[in-house]
Amino acid sequence: MAAPKVAVVGAGVIGLSTALCITETCPSCSVTVLSDQFSPNTTSDVAAGMLIPHTYPGTPINVQKQWFKETFTYLFAISNSAEASEAGIHLVSGWQVFKTTPKEELPFWSDVVLGFRPMSEAELQKFPQHRFGQAFTTLKCDCPPYLLWLEKRLKATGVQMCNRKVADLWELHSEYNVVVNCAGIGAHQLVGDEKLFPIRGQVLKVQAPWVKNFIRDGGGLTYIYPGIHRVTLGGTREKESWSLSPDPGTTKDIFDRCCSLEPSLRGAQDIEVKVGLRPSRRCVRLQREVLSQGGVKLLVVHNYGHGAGGFSVHRGTAKEAAQLVEECLAALQGSSSRAKL
Amino acid sequence: MRVAIIGAGVIGLSTALCIHEQYHSLVPSLELEVYADHYTPHTTSDGAAGLWQPYLSDHGNLQETLWNKETFDYLLGHLGSPAAKEMGLFLISGYNLFTQPVPDPSWKNIVLGFRNLTPKELELFPGYSYGWFNTALMLECRSYLPWLSTRLTQRGVKFFHKKVESFQEVSGDGVDVVINCTGVRAGELQPDPELQPGRGQVIKVLAPWVKHFIITHDISSGIYNSPYVIPGSEFTVLGGIYQHGNWSQENSAQDHKTIWESCCRLLPALQKAKIVQEWSGLRPARPRVRLERETVRHGRFQAEVIHNYGHGGFGITIHWGCAMAAARLFGSILQEKKLAGPPLPRL
């Protein structure tokens, strides 16, 4: 087979990192990223990019932990290199605080992040409404920098970026050997996945450079995540809402909730409001599929449905997707050899 | 009653505020005057990054440990207030790194969440095998000193731009008490061989991705002679110079090289940081802080002087505890002059 052609649909954190992994496992592959949105207009650009995993009810915990560990290790190395600032990766410490003691005292990822431990009484005094807390250090992927850095690395290895809306995967079957579906929330329409639904999140990105620690209310609804230039204040979790328009009432509510956790935020400047639709699913759809139409086959690898946890597991799922692409190509190789006989 | 404060760094201004807060209602005639040749942003305090952290060892100086704690608790109490941003006050977490195990510091229970570093965390810092993590406070003087000045001005305190050459110059004529907060140049008012400059140099860079302070320690080269990185609200301060007895306030190219190379080795990400400014200053180093009363006589002239200087590299860390102690000394002077009742309970 001539240099295999792989199309990656989607240019958010999943699409770009998956494309990168494919170039790593299959250097001879010709990879093209196709998307109607690129940074700074992807769902990933709205997210804070904190490495704090979301738990998928439908995926075994050991798999999720492996994905997270792989992602954390990968980013940890970048954060400690000269590329850190360009890639937008940095360490950040902070607190997860609970109004009532959580039923799960130790989350599955507590030994992957750094220095995880319960908060002391003195630390909890800063949060009078909260009775219990955990302190740890984790990583943050700032977007757009991280996505732009991925794009730069992809272009350096010859990957093409194509601004194109793919309405149907079959559009690609004549040009590509394998299609990788990293369309995120777009998969709802693209492949008609009814199990995929949006969970709308509104956030504020503000200037408050004195905020150096993250604070997250244990429920995950209210959070303060300091990035390189802006602090992300969140948030909302509105199931089945497809609206991308910022809601002013919500803005005030988010701001008030965050200020009650961190009063100094009252002095925050230059508030930007953003909305993203988390591509939510019981489990990440990470699998091969062979589509058939009139005797023609289309090899697809799905990698979407990461919901609130995209950044936390992106590298782990990207590597697994690249593996699946390898398997597809091996199968193609096998069948083309058979065809030659 | 007129009181002259000499010095407008963090020590002078906070002492003035503390005295005014505690005594202005007791002594209606109380008038405070600040005299200094340098005001913010040109004081030694302005050059400091502003991290609250005492030296590793208190050398048995329990008094200073208590003043440090008083300062931390006082600042912590202000964290949630609307003034915090204007004061330049915020929480910050970070690392202290060592090449060998060391005993816990006297301040381990003052800061928040003090703990040893895990092996995985130490992987971030090759060459260091032991360390601490804790959450402390930043108090940036380029904000704090203006904030103090505003509070003082609101209270009617007057400021004079003047280099004071002697205690006599500012006393007499109704000024009965002089507060000596002259820092490293206190020796010009009254010789003090124990007071020496601890010269430091820093490079200020733009590195907003750095969210933690990192202080390394080299027991052999001594405090502050090992690289440190302290992120502020706008700039990140890189340092690691301490030259005892060096009065030069010129930036040294050699020191620049030392700081830059050692900090970039510590944090490779800094290589891409943009350098914005370079500064050198003189820490007012002394074996212990001089915080005491003295009756100074010169011919007919006599004044009560309260000395409050010699805070080395921990002025910001200890300032409020010292201001309160100086205010107590002031209170005892008032009692002697029968100008006030017993000292106020501590605020």
Describe how the helices and strands are arranged.
The complex is a heterodimer of chains A (341) and B (347).
Chain A: E1 5-9, H1 13-25, E2 30-35, H2 43-46, H3 61-79, H4 84-87, E3 89-98, E4 114-118, H5 121-124, E5 132-141, H6 145-156, E6 160-163, E7 178-181, H7 187-190, E8 197-207, E9 214-217, E10 223-226, E11 231-234, E12 238-239, H8 248-261, E13 269-280, E14 285-293, E15 296-304, H9 310-340
Parallel strand pairs in A: 1-2, 1-7, 2-6, 3-9, 7-15
Antiparallel strand pairs in A: 3-5, 4-5, 8-11, 8-12, 8-13, 9-10, 10-11, 14-15
Helix pairs in contact in A: 1-6, 1-9, 3-9
Chain B: E1 2-6, H1 10-23, E2 31-36, H2 44-47, H3 62-78, H4 83-87, E3 89-98, E4 112-116, H5 119-122, E5 130-139, H6 141-154, E6 158-161, H7 167-170, E7 175-180, E8 196-206, E9 212-216, E10 228-231, E11 236-239, E12 243-244, H8 253-266, E13 274-285, E14 290-298, E15 301-309, H9 315-336
Parallel strand pairs in B: 1-2, 1-7, 2-6, 3-9, 7-15
Antiparallel strand pairs in B: 3-5, 4-5, 8-11, 8-12, 8-13, 9-10, 10-11, 14-15
Helix pairs in contact in B: 1-6, 1-9, 3-9
Number of strands of chain B: 15
Largest sheet of chain A: 9 strands, mixed
**Tell me, what is the CATH class of the domain at 1-50 and 140-193 and 287-346 in chain B?**
Alpha Beta
> What is the mean pLDDT of chain B?
94
Helix content of chain A: 25-40%
Overall SS class of chain A:
alpha/beta
By DSSP, the count of extended strands of chain A is: 15
Rg calc of chain B: 20 Å
Total number of helical segments of chain A? Answer: 9
Class of chain A, according to the CATH hierarchy?
Alpha Beta
Signal peptide (chain A): 1-19
InterPro entries (chain A): D-amino_acid_oxidase_CS, DAO, FAD-dep_OxRdtase
Main location (chain A): cytoplasm
Cofactor (chain A): FAD
